[in-house]
Amino acid sequence: MAIKAGFTRQDIANRLNQFHDNVEKTIISHLILLGEKSVNLAKNLNTYKDRTGNLRASIGYIVIARGKIVHTFNFKGKGQEGQSIGEAYIRKISGGYTNGYALIVVAGMQYAAAVEAKGYDVLTSAEIFAEKELPRLMIEIKKALNKMKK
Predict the structure, then answer these.
(1) By the 8 A CB rule, do 62 and 71 touch?
(2) Ranges under pLDDT 50 in the chain
(3) Angle at 105 between CA 41 and CA 43, to 5 degrees
(4) Residue-level pLDDT at 90
(5) Residue 88 lies in a domain
(6) Other C-beta atoms within 10 Å of 146: how many?
(7) 144 within some domain
(8) Domain span holding position 57
(9) Residue 3, in any domain of the structure
(10) Which residues sit opposite 122 in a β-bridge?
């Protein structure tokens, strides 16, 4: 007596593709959450006087998956110049990420590093926060993936 499968190769391929899509959505959603929290932290710091509003408006993030920008935080604030400079800067540096996943957080104004060098916090706290949160984020992603496997 022959045993006949109740599924096809296409069924297996569809299931694997669905799992891959779910994994990617999970990773991206967690990176977006981390990006939101990091940018909100950076923008809400009051360690420096942002006279024009451009420095805070130039703070934003993007999420990249396999070389493509899949989410952009809209650069916001009262400094129109900061918004456009932040957006241009983050797009410029995003081209170096062609594999895997990336969260990029920037302060796009050219003087952001100079403000930091004077002892003010523009992105330092956000960077420390993101680095500290990343291991916890990876654990959450693994837990979510394990639930998907069941």
Answers:
(1) yes
(2) none
(3) 30
(4) 92
(5) yes
(6) 9
(7) yes
(8) 47-149
(9) no
(10) none
